[in-house]
Design a protein that fits this description.
alpha+beta, 6-stranded mixed beta sheet, 10 helices, binds zinc ion
Length: 385
């Protein structure tokens, strides 16, 4: 009997097999997985306290504590022999993992460096050494994340559904005049969050952002008690988690008549957004998609005003691989986009004293190019609603 029918649509055995092959290809006999979204991806277990030992033979020892013992046993019953449940003392996964490392004769062992704490990796190393292991713990990253980048058909079904629901929320917000003169940013945010719940989302994917007037010039502003005024630009950025998958959308509204400076900025961001969407196809790099938006904004004089990346991957996390941004100095080139990648396209421009504009949609890379998952009018002036 499954405890959670929503997660049983995925082939976890195949995922574990692919992750094991990627671990072997990276030169390790086993990988200790501490990033919880990676464990959710490989097992369907959503837990606040778990670790996994993934061996190159394609077995995932999923270590959790008493609170999740029924859940982990249920997952193993669903997934089959590749998933081995282990119940340990709360917070004591290291000795349990070390036990398996010794029993399975693992030599090259790695941890996920971006998520494991230094203290936990030292405890793991000590526990392994106590059991006669003579290796040195390696640090790695991105092994499971690189698999999660490309969504399988079952994931695309969920993401498409989620994006349609988020679009419904956005259209209702526009239709019902939720973003209106006299309301506070807090009130608008609470309204949007409430509507997301009713649309089937289990929670917001991040704190809903409502940034009005001067606040709109800050790309990551948090809602305040400021009341919306005529002539304000209002950036509304919200996302929801639906069946554990995240979607993310931004529209910028103008309350009444916008200044000429804001109108010009909106036009540039709108054009940059269209250029970036058009650049999304298999074989394109994230840098190339970013450049498509950045070139438009730079030519319009907003190069300095666009200080963030053009987009990010969407999935079990709201920010995941790939990153569609400028190449970071010294960083490895990002792998090319391929069919099944789902990401946001969200160029923006922010000028203190004038205001900010951002437009964000969710797209899936398809064999022929891309599919727009979100479907909402661009917003802005009253005429375009
Ligand atoms: Zn967003
Ligand atoms: Zn985003």
């Amino acid at each position: 009997v499954s405890l959670d029918p929503e997660v049983d649509r995925f082939d976890y055995g195949a995922r574990i097999e692919r992750a094991a092959a990627a671990t072997t290809a990276a030169g390790y006999d086993a990988l200790v997985i501490t990033h919880l979204p990676n464990l959710l991806y490989l097992s369907g277990l959503e837990s606040s306290s778990a670790a996994g030992l993934l061996t190159s033979e394609g077995r995932l020892y999923l270590i959790t504590d008493f609170r999740y013992s029924a859940a982990v046993t249920g997952r193993a019953a669903q997934v089959g022999a590749r998933l081995v449940p282990v119940v340990a003392e709360s917070g004591a996964w290291a000795p349990a993992a070390a036990e398996r490392v010794a029993a399975d004769g693992v030599r090259a062992l790695a941890v996920e460096g971006d998520s494991v704490t230094l203290a936990a990796s030292r405890r793991l190393e000590a526990a392994c050494h106590e059991r006669g292991w003579t290796g040195e713990l390696a640090t790695t990253g991105g092994i499971v994340e690189m698999l999660r980048r490309v969504k399988d058909p079952a994931e695309l079904v969920v993401l498409r559904d989620a994006a349609a629901r988020l679009s419904d929320v956005a259209r209702a917000v526009i239709r019902d005049g939720c973003v209106a003169v006299g309301r506070s940013e807090h009130e608008v945010a609470a309204d949007v969050d409430h509507r997301m719940r009713w649309a089937g989302f289990s929670r917001p994917a991040f704190e809903t952002m409502v940034a009005s007037g001067p606040n709109s010039a800050y790309p990551h502003a948090r809602p305040t008690s400021r009341r919306l005024e005529a002539g304000d630009p209002v950036v509304l950025d919200f996302g929801g988690v639906f069946r554990r998958y995240c979607v993310d959308l931004t529209r910028t509204f103008c309350l009444g008549v916008a200044s000429a400076a804001l109108d010009r900025m909106f036009e540039a961001v709108f054009t940059a957004h269209a250029a970036a969407c058009a650049a999304v196809r298999p074989g394109a790099s994230g840098h190339r998609v970013d450049a498509a938006a950045r070139d438009v904004l730079t030519a319009a004089g907003y190069g300095e005003a666009f200080g963030h990346a053009t987009g990010h991957g969407l999935g079990l996390e709201v920010h995941e691989a790939p990153r569609l941004g400028k190449r970071r100095p010294g960083a490895e080139p990002e792998p090319e986009l391929e069919a099944g990648v789902v990401c946001t396209i969200e160029p923006g421009a922010y000028v203190p004293g004038v205001g900010g504009i951002r437009l964000e949609d969710d797209v899936a890379v398809t064999p022929a190019g891309h599919e727009l998952l979100t479907d909402v009018p661009p917003g802005w002036s009253a005429d375009s609603r």
